[in-house]
Design brief:
Helix content: 25-40%
Structural class: alpha+beta
Number of domains: 1
CATH superfamily: Gcn5-related N-acetyltransferase (GNAT)
Protein name: N-acetyltransferase domain-containing protein
Pfam family, one: Acetyltransf_3
Domain N-acetyltransferase: 3-167
Shape: globular
Radius of gyration: 15 Å
Number of helices: 5
Largest sheet: 7 strands, mixed
CATH class: Alpha Beta
Number of strands: 7
GO molecular function: acyltransferase activity, transferring groups other than amino-acyl groups
């Protein structure tokens, strides 16, 4: 299985929409990730990703054996947070439980620590997403904080956990 993290391309829109248009995927993500997820949503996202300056964020596709499997983003902090990055990622359901997210997160973090001056990468995970928690634990992120009723998603209050990886 070949996993690659790469820049989004306009021609990825149909494949992105196919993987993203899943309620099980959207339920663990911020509301800016729509459901249903249309090809127009995908094109809007890709256009934004291509306009994002590399010094502000790396917005990338996760590709498995030449096919779009999901997305991963590292947003760089600014001002007093300039040495920090915030990580987010998702996979289409057909790619779950295969170690793909674990490898993608490890690869992106290793690259970020090698190519930037980041010293900390953090990720916030909803507690109703144990698979994502396990990804971060496997990649040696440390649990740093627990927040009660932190997120309101689909009219439900959900706790979240903050994980961090230090250089």
């Amino acid at each position: 299985m070949e996993i690659q993290i790469r820049t989004w391309k306009p021609e990825d829109a149909a494949a992105l929409a196919e993987q993203a248009n899943n309620e099980k995927v959207a339920e663990h993500l911020r509301n800016v990730f729509p459901h249903p997820y249309t090809e127009e949503d995908a094109q809007f996202f890709i256009n934004g990703a291509l306009r994002t300056h590399c010094d502000r964020a790396w917005v990338r596709a996760i590709e498995v054996d030449g096919k779009i499997a999901g997305g991963i983003t590292l947003t760089f902090g600014d001002d007093v947070y300039s040495k920090n990055g915030e990580l987010g990622y998702w996979l289409g359901e057909s790619y779950w439980n295969r170690g793909i997210a674990t490898r993608a997160v490890a690869d992106l973090c290793e690259r970020a620590f090698r190519e930037t001056d980041l010293v900390r990468i953090e990720a916030e995970v909803l507690t109703n997403n144990p698979a994502s928690i396990r990804v971060l634990e496997k990649d040696h992120f440390q649990r740093e904080g627990y927040f009660c009723n932190r997120v309101c998603k689909n009219d439900q209050l959900i706790d979240s956990v903050i994980f961090a990886l230090l250089k």
